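look at this fold:
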Amino acid sequence: MKAIIFAGGTGTRLWPLSRKKTPKQFDKLVGDKSTLQLAVERLRPDFEYKNIYISTNIAYEKTIREQLPLIPKDNIIMEPEKKDVGPAIALAVGVIHRQFPHEPIAILWSDHLVKQAALFRKILKLAGKYVKRAPDKIVFVSHKPRYASVNLGYVHFGKRIHEDQRISFYQFKGLKYRPDATTAKKFFRSGSYAWNLGYFVTTPKFIMKVFSQLAPNIYRNTVKILEHYGKPSYQAFLKKHYGQVEGISFDNAILENLDQKDAQVIVEDVGWSDIGAWEALKEALEAHPYENVIRGKVYLEHVRDSLIYNYEDKQLIVGIDLDETIVVNTKDVILIAKKNSVPKIKKLVEGFEGTENEKLI
C-alpha cells in the first residue's frame, strides 16, 4: 500500500509564523517536529519509507529533503506552480499509476494532528484491504464531529454495509463543503454526517478513470506531461504545461460529482484536528476549553482561554487580564488578536501585497 502526503499549502491563517517561503506544514507547531514530520511518523512502521510519497511545490524541495531525509528522492513529486489540489492530485497519483496502477493508495495531508495513530493506521490498512478486493471503489476516512463546525466539509453516510475488525463501512450519500451555521448544527445533531478530512483510500487506476470522466482537461494535460516522466525533457515540459489547466479543488472537480455507488465511508474518532489556524491549534492542544496554550518564554496572570506563542528566546511575553486572546511573537512581527478574529488574518495579510509590508507575507 502507498501513501501520498500533500504539503503544498501556504497556511495564511497561521501567519505570522506561516509564510510563503516557510508554510505551516514545515513549522514546529507541536513539540520539536513539524506537522509534515508528524504526518510521516504516524504512518510508521506500517508504511515503509519507500511507500510514502510527498507532493509539494518545487520551492519547498530543499526543506522537505532536510526534514525527511529517509524519503527516497524519487518519492518527492513537485509541482512547478500552485494550481489547487485537483491538478496536484492528478499529477501525484498519475506518477504512481505508471508503476502501481492497482495498488491501494491513501491520500493524506501534512497540516493535521491525529492523536490515535495506531487506530488511524488500522483504518488505512483495512480500507486498503477492501480496495484491493474492489479496485474501482473509494473509501472516505471521516471523523465523528466534536461540534458543529462551519469551517469543515461533511460526508453524508447511510446504512452500514459491512464490518472488518470492528471497523464499519457505511453507504456514501454525498458531500457538503463548509455549511452555514444552521446547517452545520443540523448535520451535527443528525448523527448521519461526519467531518470530511480529505483522507481517502482507493487505487491510482480508479482516480485516473474518474479524472478522465469528470475533469477531462486535467486528465489529458496530466497524461501529456507524464509521457515525459523519467526523461531529460520532463522538468521543462512540466513547467511549461502544468499551469495550462484551471485551478480547482479535488472536492469540486471530482468528489462532489462522484457516483454514490462508487464510494463507502468509515466514520471513527482518531483524535483528528485541523490546525490550519491559531484558534484550531488551541482547540487541538488544550486539555479543556478554558485552558491557556503557551510556547516559549511566557508569564501570565489572570489570563484565560488564550494561546500565547513566543518564538523569540531573548524576549519574555507578559500577559495580564486577557481572555480569548491570540499572541504570536516572531522575529519581525507580533500578532495580537481576539480568538474569534483569527479568520480575519488571511484577508489582512493579502492586503499587504503591493505595500511596504509585502516582505512579511
